């Protein structure tokens, strides 16, 4: 039996080019020089570290972690769950996973979000959890709403949740977005359409999971996260290097 390779060469053709004019923000943000891949230094490989003591028992429950007593957020109740895996499909345990999102009306709890949808007083929009020994993570939340953004005349972001996955320290962080199966706005989004590989787009879509759905309660979506390798999930902050 052959030993799996320690590292896999990244397929950069899966990643968006830095300059994609239909996504207007990329014009100002795109670098003028070739990208440089950097090796991790000691400061990036070592601490600070995370532990279960840093996580509150309801941090992964966005239905209750900000709500007033006997209240709950407005919107479609959902479960988002899956596993964090390495390039050889091995589980990555004890990894901090954080999420943040808009509420069911498509508005973030942020002072610079001026979209006309109302703020939900019982929804904070963020949560975190640690993967278990099998690399499994689990969140309860509401399905976020679509919202307009000033890219072209009539662009809307599809419903999405931002995910942050930490390694063994603060400097080892990857960020991505998940979308929801069946959303017609996914393939109309200028940000999504910067991704040249259709398969990479498909890996950003959480799939309806009726096996994990709780009858008369909460619809479930499954989203596995692959950290490296040929089947790696597309991460936003890998576009500038390793």
So what's the CATH class? Mainly Beta
Shape: globular
Radius of gyration: 18 Å
What structural category do the secondary elements indicate?
Answer: mainly beta
Task: Let me know the average pLDDT.
Answer: 90
Strand content: 15-25%
Tally of structural domains:
1
What's the CATH topology label? Protocatechuate 3,4-Dioxygenase, subunit A
Question: By CATH's scheme, which homologous superfamily applies?
Answer: Aromatic compound dioxygenase
* SSE pattern, N- to C-terminal: HHEEEEEEEEHEEE
Distance between the termini: 30 Å
CATH architecture: Sandwich
- Largest sheet report: 9 strands, mixed
| β-strand number | 11
| Uncertain runs | none
Count, helices: 3
Q: Give helix % range.
A: under 10%
Pfam family, one: Dioxygenase_C
Domain Protocatechuate 3,4-dioxygenase beta subunit N-terminal: 8-40
Family: Belongs to the intradiol ring-cleavage dioxygenase family.
Region (Disordered): 1-24
Walkthrough of the structure:
Pfam families: Dioxygenase_C, PCDO_beta_N. Its EC number is 1.13.11.3. It is an enzyme of class 1 (oxidoreductase). This is Protocatechuate 3,4-dioxygenase subunit beta. Residues 1-24 are annotated as: Disordered. The strands form two sheets. Strands 1, 2, 3, 4, 7, 8, 9, 10 and 11 form a nine-stranded mixed beta sheet that branches. Strands 5-6 form a two-stranded antiparallel sheet. By secondary structure, it is mainly beta. The mean pLDDT is 90. It has a single domain (12-227), classed as Aromatic compound dioxygenase (Protocatechuate 3,4-Dioxygenase, subunit A), CATH 2.60.130. 6% of the residues lie in helices and 24% in strands. It starts with 24 loop residues before the first helix and ends in a 16-residue tail after the last strand. Strand 8 (173-180), helix 3 and strand 9 (205-208) form a beta-alpha-beta unit.
């Amino acid at each position: 039996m052959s030993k799996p390779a320690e590292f896999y060469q990244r397929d950069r053709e899966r990643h968006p080019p830095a300059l994609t004019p239909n996504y207007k923000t990329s014009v100002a943000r795109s670098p003028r020089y070739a990208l440089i891949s950097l090796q991790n230094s000691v400061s990036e490989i070592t601490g600070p570290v995370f532990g279960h003591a840093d996580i509150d028992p309801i941090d992964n429950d966005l239905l209750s972690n900000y709500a007033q007593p006997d209240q709950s957020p407005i919107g479609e109740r959902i479960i988002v769950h899956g596993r964090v895996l390495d390039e050889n499909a091995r589980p990555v345990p004890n990894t901090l996973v954080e999420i943040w999102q808009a509420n069911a009306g498509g508005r973030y709890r942020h002072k610079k979000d001026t979209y006309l949808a109302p703020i939900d007083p019982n929804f904070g929009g963020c949560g975190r959890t640690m993967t278990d020994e099998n690399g499994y993570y689990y969140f309860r939340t509401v399905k976020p709403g679509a919202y307009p953004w000033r890219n072209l005349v009539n662009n809307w972001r599809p419903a999405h949740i931002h995910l942050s996955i930490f390694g063994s320290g603060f400097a080892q962080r990857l960020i991505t977005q998940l979308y929801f199966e069946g959303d017609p706005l996914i393939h109309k989004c200028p940000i999504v359409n910067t991704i040249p590989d259709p398969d990479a787009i498909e890996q950003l879509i959480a799939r309806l999971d009726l096996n994990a759905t709780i009858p008369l309660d909460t619809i479930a979506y499954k989203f596995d996260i692959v950290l490296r390798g040929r089947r790696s999930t597309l991460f936003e902050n890998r576009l500038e290097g390793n």
